[in-house]
Amino acid sequence: MPDPTAAILPALSAALADIVARTKSAIVSVHSHRSRASGFIWKPGLIVTADEALADEGEVSVKLADGTVGPASIAGRDHTTDIALLRFDTGNAAPVALSPVVPELGSLSVVVAAEHGVPTAALGTVSLVGGSWRSLRGGEIDARIELGVRLRHNHEGGLALTASGDAIGMAVQGVRRVLVIPSATIGRVAGRLETHGRIARGYLGVGLQPVKLDDGIGAMVMSVDQSGPSAAAGIRQGDIIVGWNGEKISGVRSLLRALGPDSVGSVVDVEIRRGGEPVRVKLTIGERADA
Question: Where is the PDZ domain (predicted)?
Fold first, then answer.
């Protein structure tokens, strides 16, 4: 009697191969200085790749799946979310349709990347799924997705797909793990890069150090940019910031979290302690010049 499970693996294999075949035409190779990475066509004429894998200087070239090679220009890059956007004539190649789907823990995932223009594929599992988080560089990532898959350096920027063929984001190398920058983050950040060429970041114009207080944690002002927003608000070296818009802060990190793109130009109430006495000031958040 034929084994009814005998056809399962061939069927799964054929389905995964079909998913890769339908996606590989949108996958590109990116070469910058001595660095190589992968990327994918996000919109006609626009390619998303991993910022970490992109050289800081020098020319950038792209090779499409059909063999077309040419120079690309950097439309914008965001170190905090590891997203870079390139401009390149993608011809008739169809862009990737990113999906907002967050995969199930333990489900299969395929990373489709490129090596010297030749498509590659690696199969693994979704090893961790969680909520939104902040990268070590302060970027807001909409979901925590980790993959149990081997990812070469030049495959960073490739697409992570579900077993159903949904493109759930960009595969990048994290600290001892492979991460997915989810579609929601790519759409938000790449959209700003396309429009503005950069991601604005809030700027206070102070150097801060966490300090323990009797009733919590504050942020001591160690230095002040005399041309910055804090100096204009009257904040001085030695002041301790303890409150932000009526709420106690939990340290320096909580202040940094408040300095996202939408914070620039907003006015906040800052509570400080100066010589043990409470002082309140209004501060207009500036924009980092190197954002």
Answer: 198-252
